[in-house]
Automatic annotation (TrEMBL):
NCBIfam families the UniProt entry points to: FGAM_synth_I, PRK03619.1
InterPro entries named in the record: Class_I_gatase-like, PRibForGlyAmidine_synth_PurQ
Annotated SUPFAM superfamilies: Class I glutamine amidotransferase-like
Active-site residues (renumbered): 86 (nucleophile), 184, 186
A GO cellular component annotation in the UniProt record: cytoplasm
TM helices/strands, residue ranges: none
Cell compartments where the protein resides: Cytoplasm
The protein, known as: Phosphoribosylformylglycinamidine synthase subunit PurQ
Subcellular location, principal: cytoplasm
Molecular function (Gene Ontology), one example: phosphoribosylformylglycinamidine synthase activity
Family matches, as Gene3D superfamilies: 3.40.50.880
Length: 213
């Protein structure tokens, strides 16, 4: 069975939700404490959401400087699928795996609600089972999710209605095998507990399909 690391930093709180989503589609997820993470051991990596290091300095800034990220850099070079959700996206941007920056929302404030998101890039390991332009429903929960580009970038997800002032309503960015998004696909996988439906389920099924080749 394929092994998927769910990377956990101090302040990460979405790890068990990710683990549940992985298990739901038949993938072997493993929560890995950041100090224990080593390159070459896993088939894919997910950086879960939360507030790593209490969002000190900037969201994701301190986690991006850890040895775990240097190990992750080696895995990215191996071209394994890497996903960053919310704070995980912020970490990937701070570490330079994805271009641009994630700034405080405009208008300022923490946003927590379900929202419609369109899938733009369907060529990633996490999106290839979606249809181009497919609109799904996922929750967001962030205070620093306004995407600011630093140059050309590949938009992976787009908000149908921009909630935070992101450039071109960008909800997610891709770079080959690396994907970051602010919405939470791990919270939209089970009709019994996800009030907004299962718009995130195809993301995890896409990963499983990609790994199986």
């Amino acid at each position: 069975m394929y092994r998927v690391a769910v990377l956990k930093f101090p302040g990460t709180n979405g790890d068990y939700d990710v683990l549940r989503a992985l298990n739901l589609v038949g993938l072997q997820g493993e929560i890995v404490w950041y100090r224990d993470y080593a390159a070459g051991k896993y088939d894919a990596v997910v950086l879960a959401g939360g507030f790593s290091y209490g969002d000190r300095l900037r969201a994701g800034a301190i986690a991006a400087q850890t040895e775990a990220i240097e190990q992750l850099r080696r895995d990215v070079e191996r071209e394994i699928p890497v996903l960053g959700i919310c704070n995980g996206f912020q970490i990937l941007v701070e570490a330079g795996f994805l271009p641009g920056a994630l700034a405080p929302n405009e208008p300022p404030g923490f946003i927590s609600k379900w929202i419609q998101v369109a899938v733009v890039d369907v060529k990633t390991p996490f999106t290839h089972l979606y249809e181009p332009g497919e609109v799904v429903y996922m929750p967001i929960a962030h205070g620093e999710g306004r995407y600011i580009p630093s140059g050309p970038y590949t938009q992976a997800f787009r908000y149908v209605e921009n909630p935070n002032g992101s450039h071109n309503a960008t909800a997610g960015v891709s770079n080959g095998n690396v994907l970051g998004l602010m919405p939470h696909p791990e919270r939209a996988v089970d009709r019994d507990i996800s009030r907004g439906g299962v718009g995130g389920l195809k993301l995890w099924l896409s990963l499983k399909s990609w790994l199986k080749g």
